[in-house]
Amino acid sequence: MLANKTVVLGVTGSIAAYKAADIASKLTQAGARVEAVMTDSATRFITPLTLRSITGHPVVTSMWEMASEFSIEHVALAEAADVVVIAPATANIIAHLAGGMADDMLTCTVLATKAPVIIAPAMNDNMFNNPVTRENIEKLKARGFVFVAPGYGHLASGKTGVGRLADTETVIGTIKQVLGKNGDLMDKRIVVTAGGTREPIDPVRYIGNRSSGKMGYAVASAARDRGAEVKLITTVTCLPETVGIDVVAVDTADEMEQAVKGAVKDADALIMAAAAADYKPETTAESKIKKDSASLSIGLVKTPDILAGVKGNFIKVGFAAESEDIIVNAQKKLQAKGLDLIIANDITDKDCGFGADTNKVTIIDKNGKIEDLPLMSKREVADKILDRVVGLLKGG
Ligand code: CTP
Fold first, then answer.
1. What pLDDT is attached to residue 74?
2. Is the CB of 217 under 6 A from ligand 1?
C-alpha cells in the first residue's frame, strides 16, 4: 500500500534522528518515494548524505539550497506529498507548528501541504510533560495532526521515562492507517480472529495447536490499511504492528466465543482465521497436577463452534484447514456453518502450513464459485479475501 506514495519525512534535531534512517529505509523498501527534509539542527545528528543514500533522492536542508540546487519552488514537496511525517519531532518544531511559524523548509512544507501530517515526538520526559508542550500538542491534534505517542524507556539524559521515539513499526503502521483512511473498507467494521486457543488442563498446562496467528494478523492489518475499523480477537499478542486495531486478547474457545458474539453486534464482516479448539478438558484442575500416577487420562468435551453459532446481518468468512479432500471438505463446512466465503488451505504443504509467511488458498463462495490462488504472502492472501468481502458488501 506504500508503493508509489510520496512520503515527506521531516527530521529534526533530536538524538533519535538516527532512527529516521531506519524509517526511511523501511518506507523505501516498501516502495514509497521518500523525500527527506532536515532542519539545520538535525544535520548535526545525522548527515543528509545518509538519508540521500537510503532514499535515492536529494535531501532538503534549506530553502535557499533547494531553490538553487534542485530548482523547484519551496512548496513543491508540500504539493507532492501524500503524507508528511515528522520523526523525530522535537518540542521546538512542535512549538513552531503550533504557532503557525514558517521559518524553515520543514515548517513551510507543513504549512503549505494539504496532505495529512503525522508527528512522532522524541524528547526528554520533562519537556514532553511540560504544560506548554502538552498544550501545543493538543492544539495541533485539534487541527487534525496525527500524533504517534512516544514510548517509555531509556532516554538520552540517562533517565527512564516517556519520550523515546515510537518504534519504526509503529510509525509506519500509523502512516499506513492514515493513508488507508479513505480506502474501499472505509466506515466498515470488520471483526477478525487469530491464533490457536488454549484450553487449560491445570494452571500450568493447556491443550493448544500450532496456529501462529499470522494469517489473522495479516487480514486485520490489511483491513485497517483499507480504511476499516478493525477488532482483532486473538490468542497471540506478540506479533508486531497493530496500530489503530482494537486488539482483544483471549485464551480459550469459550472466551473467544463471548468476544466474537459481543463484537459482531454492529459488524459488517466476521473473518474467523483463528484455530479454535474443537475439544477442551472436561475439568480444569485447580492446582498443578503432580506426576504421582503411572498414567493420566484427560476427558475432553466439545467446545462451541463459534462460527456456526454466531448469527446476524454480516458477511461470514471461515477458514478450512484440511489435509485431504480439501475442496469437498471446505464446501461442507461452508454450508454447515452458513458462510458467505470459505478459505481452504492444504496444511500438509510446508509453504502454507502453520507459522509460514506464505499461503496457498482456494476461496469458495456460497454460489459454488471456486477461486484457486497461487502461492503468495499471507498479506496478499488477506487482500484477496478482502477484495471478495468488499464485493459482497457492495451486494456482489
Ligand atoms: N471454528 C470455530 N469454532 C470452533 C472450531 C472452528 O468457529 N470451535 C471455525 C474456524 O475458525 C474456521 C472454521 O470454523 O474458520 C473451520 O475450522 P476447521 O478447524 O477447519 O474445522 P472444524 O469446523 O473445526 O472441523 P474439523 O476440525 O472436523 O475439520
1. 64
2. no
Q: Is the pLDDT of residue 100 over 50?
A: yes
* Percentage helix, strand, coil for the chain under 3-state DSSP, each rounded to 5: 35, 25, 40
Q: What is the pTM of this model?
A: 0.92
Statement: 6-179 belongs to CATH 3.40.190.80: no
Nearest to 238 by CA among 195, 174, 191, 192: 195
Spans of all domains in the chain: 6-179, 189-393
| pLDDT over 90 at 67, yes or no | no
- CA–CA distance, 143 with 99 (Å, rounded to integer): 12
In a mutational test of the pocket of ligand 1, which residue from 278, 324, 342 has the highest number of ligand atoms less than 8 Å from its CB? 278
Q: What span, in angstroms and rounded, lies between the C-alpha atoms of 78 and 99?
A: 19
C-beta 306 within 6 A of ligand 1: yes
Same fold, 6-179 and 189-393: yes
Name the strand (E) or helix (H) holding 233.
Answer: strand 229-234
Find where cell 473473518 sits. 271
Neighbours of 302 (CB within 10 A): 10
3-state SS assignment for residue 26: helix
209 included as an active-site residue: yes
Whether the ω angle into residue 374 lies within 30 degrees of 0, i.e. cis, is no
The H-assigned helical ranges of 242-340 are: 253-263, 306-309, 326-336
Q: Which class in CATH covers the domain with range 189-393?
A: alpha beta
